[in-house]
Amino acid sequence: MDSNDVREAWADRSGEYSPTYYAHYGPDETSELVRAKIGTHCGTDPRVLEVGCGVGRHLAALAEAGFTDLAGVDVNADALDVLDETYPELAAEGEFHAVTIEAYLDDVETDAFDAAFSVETLQHIHPDETWVFEELARVTSDLLITVENESGEYGTANHVDDQLPLYYRDWRAVFTDLGFDEVESAERKRDTVRVFRAVD
Q1: Dist CA 109 CA 107 (whole Å)
Q2: 136: number of CA atoms within 13 Å, CB side?
Q3: Three-state DSSP class for 45?
Q4: pLDDT of the chain along its 200 residues, tens only?
Q5: Angle at which helices 57-64 and 29-42 pack, to 10 degrees?
Q6: Cα–Cα dist 50/58, whole Å
Q7: 2-22: buried (b, 16+ CB within 10 Å) or exposed (e) per residue?
Q8: From CA 46, how far away is CA 62, in angstroms rounded?
């Protein structure tokens, strides 16, 4: 699959791992983990971006905890429709974009967000589009959190449902090379959590 195929596959996703699939589950322990890490490092009033926000369940946990300046981007327009139905207050108060991460970040100002995070999204970025990691670092002034699957050999790929590629990467190396220090990390059953702070 080339990079356009990957984006189109996620944009049209239905069934398992679709917007309604995640809306059914709602916020979870990962949502709480992200909320706690952002709260610990940035307080409760940072400007926060989630890339690959889906139906907004992780941002909904932040909103419930009192965070007010929230934004999300997702390639699947249906996901944002489900967000609007499932979390209407979040949809009304937040800033959401139905576009590719690549296209969105290209138009965002440097240091526009105090904190940014990704939950099992960056792992699907095609190798031809890895410049997007530099863009994510550019728009994040302080805290960056990755919750990504690192269970395979770095540099290889697996496929979701034998279709959608999941690229195994060393996220510590990716973002420390882009001006961040890793301040926390934890391996979990499904993924690895890494917390980065921008180097002054």
Answers
A1: 7
A2: 33
A3: coil
A4: 544 554 455 445 555 555 565 555 667 899 999 999 999 999 989 999 999 999 999 999 999 999 999 999 999 888 899 999 999 999 999 999 999 999 999 999 999 999 999 999 999 999 999 999 999 999 999 999 999 999 999 999 988 665 678 999 999 999 999 999 999 999 999 899 999 999 97
A5: 50
A6: 8
A7: eeeebbebbbebeeeebbeeb
A8: 11
